[in-house]
TrEMBL record:
<protein>
    <recommendedName>
        <fullName>magnesium chelatase</fullName>
        <ecNumber>6.6.1.1</ecNumber>
    </recommendedName>
</protein>
<feature type="domain" description="ChlI/MoxR AAA lid">
    <location>
        <begin position="276"/>
        <end position="335"/>
    </location>
</feature>
<dbReference type="InterPro" id="IPR052041">
    <property type="entry name" value="Nucleic_acid_metab_PIN/TRAM"/>
</dbReference>
<comment type="pathway">
    <text>Porphyrin-containing compound metabolism.</text>
</comment>
<dbReference type="Pfam" id="PF17863">
    <property type="entry name" value="AAA_lid_2"/>
</dbReference>
<dbReference type="GO" id="GO:0016851">
    <property type="term" value="F:magnesium chelatase activity"/>
</dbReference>
<dbReference type="InterPro" id="IPR041628">
    <property type="entry name" value="ChlI/MoxR_AAA_lid"/>
</dbReference>
Length: 370
């Protein structure tokens, strides 16, 4: 299992940091949402921000916790494909001889009208590459074509610009950051939505650990509480990432060794079956969601210092995997209407029901193994 120091570090992480960590372990992508008035603070918590004033960069989930660079892509109804693609890139210095051109792309490829030849940058030049963490703010407001381009980026791990094709780095995380009053309201276009590994809704009342630490000017080593989740930091000092790439690789390897008892597998299948048959669910539950449910449960196990899946881990995984995927049916399309139910009665039953309520209802109905 994970060594004791790493295990203690993981238990000190915030919910936002845990959502990012689980996505990095699984090499998948996540959706994070919060109420409209908290989006900017959420972005600052997740992204390394350099303000217009002389303040130093804020410590962020991406940079401070995981040692990754990040970009914010601001989306709206006027966002174009070229703007979206170019916004993903950051400058990356190359050492002489370290640059390897990408292979030629067949003209039949997606967004095919692109150059097929690339030049090596001269010594000392900087090349552009996709950032490790891409925070797509308000991606749900972007045109459908832009959201499909984002899906293609996640599927192929590369993006086309007017002059080149850029491959995603080994550690790559794409995070739509959306405004929503609840986790069940946050979603992007259907196929992209189903491709996303998990969803997390952040309550502003839970606070922003890294942002608050930066605004306080850092925490002194002598005054930092040993039980606090805020790590000691000296303003302007260069600190190592709390969780390195090697730590993430180690946790990923441990997750692949996690086992599940047949009773736990049966419990998992029962959860999926009950969700598919729930009267409030429209369009069913996709196979991709079932795969992600098992994958997330296995990724959670090493974080809890066990090498097997428990019913509690499956319940926790279900709350994160299905939050953004469940669509509530319209009352007139609820299945009991085919058998003579009254529309007003069905409307009363479905009133106030969202994905959160459906998930909790199913977890209460399905009996967990002892």
């Amino acid at each position: 299992m994970a060594d004791e120091s790493l295990f203690e570090t993981i238990h000190d992480l915030s919910d936002l940091e845990l959502a990012v960590l689980l996505s990095l372990i699984a090499r998948e992508h996540c959706l994070i949402s919060t109420p409209q008035d908290g989006v900017d603070d959420l972005i600052e918590e997740l992204q390394l921000v350099q303000t217009e004033s002389s303040k130093p960069p804020f410590p962020s989930v991406a940079s401070k916790t995981f040692g990754l660079n990040s970009v914010v892509v601001h989306c709206d109804s006027s966002t174009t494909l070229d703007t979206f693609a170019s916004s993903l890139l950051v400058a990356h210095p190359q050492t002489p001889g370290s640059f390897t051109p990408l292979p030629n792309i067949r003209s039949e490829s997606y967004f095919s009208a692109r150059p097929r030849h690339y030049q090596l940058p001269s010594a000392g030049d900087s090349s552009l590459r996709i950032a490790n963490v891409v925070l797509a703010k308000d991606l749900d407001r972007a045109p459908h074509a832009v959201q499909i381009q984002a899906l293609e980026l996640l599927r192929t791990r590369r993006i086309f610009t007017r002059t080149a094709v850029h491959a995603a780095p080994k550690q790559f995380l794409f995070v739509p950051v959306l405004a929503a009053e609840s986790g069940g309201e946050a979603r992007v276009t259907r196929h992209l939505n189903d491709f996303l590994f998990l969803a997390h809704w952040h309550d502003p009342e839970d606070g922003y650990v890294n942002l608050e630490e930066a605004e306080d000017g850092g925490v002194d080593d002598e005054t930092a509480s040993t039980g606090s989740v805020v790590k000691a930091r000296v303003p302007g000092a260069v600190t190592e990432a709390l969780i390195s790439e090697n730590d993430i690789s180690h946790l990923a390897k441990l997750s692949q060794q996690v086992v599940a008892d047949v009773d736990v597998i049966r419990y998992q299948m029962n959860i999926v079956s009950f969700l598919r048959m729930h009267r409030a669910v429209a369009d069913g539950i996709s196979p991709a969601a079932t795969k992600h449910l098992e994958q997330l449960a296995r990724c959670l196990a090493p974080l809890h210092n066990v090498d097997y899946v428990t019913p509690a881990l499956l319940s926790l995984a279900a709350r994160k995997v299905y939050l953004h995927r469940i669509r509530i049916t319209a009352p007139e399309k609820e299945r009991s209407m085919q058998w003579g139910s009254k529309l007003r009665a069905v409307e009363a039953v479905l009133e106030g029901v969202g994905p959160e309520e459906v998930i909790e209802d199913v977890l209460e109905m399905v009996t967990a193994p002892l």
